[in-house]
Specification:
The structure is a homodimer of 345-residue chains. By secondary structure, chain A is an alpha/beta fold. The first copy, chain A, has eleven helices and 17 strands. The first copy, chain A, is globular. Strand 14 of chain A pairs parallel with strand 6 of chain B, so a sheet runs across the interface.
């Protein structure tokens, strides 16, 4: 199985997702600030993977400072926590994981810093393992929704690379294939970071799952030609009413799906739900550097003096979503009541 | 005024649109086969500009062979005509211009080849001049539709660079600005050839028209945030019922416009109407090399072994189009009857 993040030689290693598929290599991380920078610069991306990375960021900071007195140690943790919390604003798994890590250090009964550090590393390992388990559960549940022979369109990368393993949206596709269904995938390239072209196509190709790559603006044409049977995407934050923030462009895919009566599924673990946010338009939407729009590495195709906007996410209202697949079950009718019933328990 | 094509030193010169905005230079052409290759490789693109280029392709072929006997001369013209007709399949202006050139050589009363060649060059000049005039007329008519202060989204490049000058969609915007309206433009980059990022943004910037560049998948977000007041695009072929083939992705923009009740205008000269094609799904849609999806120049970001599709156009059904602006008038209600009444007369 592809390990997006791994604990090795007493440090965190993560696949450098900025250079895939041309290069496949792991980078090492030793502190909260290093992990925060990796999240910000998209060495690691995808809501669940960001959550796992942040958890290890705290664990690394604890390990690094475990020789300190408890007050100094806790101050260092607090500082690392603050830095990590400011790395990216939209994916709620970051805050969910940080909250869990804080709970861990608040509740552990330990005399010495190194004991707390040990407990925090255990908690990070647990978060990673739970993520994989949850993806497997979502996969098994969601696989039922995909028909044998289906052409399934996915957007961005909600795969193993966006999680600790198996994936959310791609996890459902993987599980459907394990269940014996013949599924072929259409991957939209997902500008500007090209997660679909660089990550999803690569990841599926590694598993020998049939994949066809298109540009984002071809989705409407393919749907109108009847070449898409279902759509499945991940999520960066789900509001209490079922609105979903996900990679920029998801909204347009959902609107097209609605016009053509194609099921539009979201695969999202409970950790991606934010029950404190009542509806999607209250979710903070990250704006990223405009250089990411105008360049690819050294290659620049737009004049520097042109004004640009770079929104990293958009919001898909619940009325466009056929169902949300979670590890606890599938929510077909997206109401606040149904969501609370499943998620808050 | 920006001259996309020009006749200079007894040869055709065209701006090399593959290298804008990083380089601005003209290339020279001397035969039908050279012009056909320029159309195929997108040195020149945009339906009206392709029509003008094809007309000059015939004129160049005539000039090159004007020393031949009339039968050999006409055979050379025929061969050039066939080569040009196979350069690209979707934009109907190519076939419209070629038909006009054939009519010109069929109807001219001339004894010698060089006289026919002269008449064909005159006809090419007329096609170019008419294109500019028609764009100015469309501009003046269409300008009425844009409100002072409007944020207008355009897609691909339907500007001076897509025509002999002034532009179709951007011509309407230019004319509105000349009429004293404050218009700001949102340009979607338009993958994979990046006509929006490389051509529209550059062209508007040259004219100091405010422009903001986004990726194609941000259109839905901006529309949903109320940041788009109107949409205007060009066309590659309009069917007899009012369905419009245009750059891939246009359909998705029109679907989003409909959902948010934003006017969606098409600016299209009569030469882009194909009254022989009853509806949009009968329009041939070009598929182009997949390398254009996976690379930008030398820079490659997708694995070569991944399957890809590259559709160059899609079809927007007439029910999504608020009005089509032509040089003869604006068609608000898109019916075959209204279209024939205006265009066929």
């Amino acid at each position: 199985m592809l390990e997006t993040l791994r604990w090795k030689n007493d440090q965190l290693e993560m696949i450098d997702q900025r250079v895939l598929p041309n290069q496949f290599n792991y980078l090492s991380f030793h502190s909260a600030i290093e992990v925060a920078e990796a999240i910000r610069s998209m060495v690691v991306r995808g809501a669940p993977a960001i959550g796992c990375a942040a958890a290890y960021g705290i664990a690394l900071e604890a390990k690094k400072n475990s020789h300190l007195d408890k007050p100094d140690f806790l101050a260092a943790l607090e500082e690392g926590w603050q830095i990590l919390s400011k790395s990216r604003p939209t994916a709620v798994n970051l805050f969910w994981a940080l909250k869990r890590m804080r709970q861990a250090w608040n509740t552990v009964s330990a005399t010495y810093s190194y004991q707390i550090a040990h407990a925090l590393l255990e908690e990070a390992h647990r978060i990673l393992q739970e993520d994989i388990c949850n993806n497997r559960k979502m996969g098994a549940l969601g696989a039922e929704l995909l028909k044998d022979g289906a052409h399934v369109l996915t957007y961005c990368n909600a795969g193993a690379l966006a999680t600790a393993g198996h994936g959310t949206a791609l996890g459902v596709i993987r599980s459907a294939i394990w269940a014996g269904k013949r599924i072929s995938v259409i991957s939209a390239e997902t500008r500007p970071f090209l997660q679909g072209a660089r990550l999803t196509a690569w990841e599926l190709n590694q598993d020998q799952i049939p994949v066809t790559l298109i540009t984002d603006n071809m989705i409407g044409h393919l749907i109108s030609k009847g070449e898409v049977d279902a759509i499945i995407v991940g999520a960066d934050r789900v509001a209490a009413n079922g609105d979903v923030a996900n990679k920029i462009g998801t909204y347009m895919v959902a609107v097209l799906a609605k016009r053509h009566n194609i099921p539009f599924y979201v695969a999202s673990p409970c950790s991606t739900f934010d029950l404190d946010i009542l509806e999607g338009n209250l979710i903070p939407i990250e704006e990223r550097p405009i250089e990411e729009i105008a360049n690819l590495d050294e290659y620049q195709w737009s004049l520097g003096k042109i004004k640009m906007r770079h929104f990293a996410f958009d919001v898909t209202p619940r009325d466009l979503i056929t169902a949300i697949i979670t590890e606890k079950g599938i929510i077909h009718q997206l109401t606040q009541e149904n969501i609370f019933k499943l998620i808050a328990q």
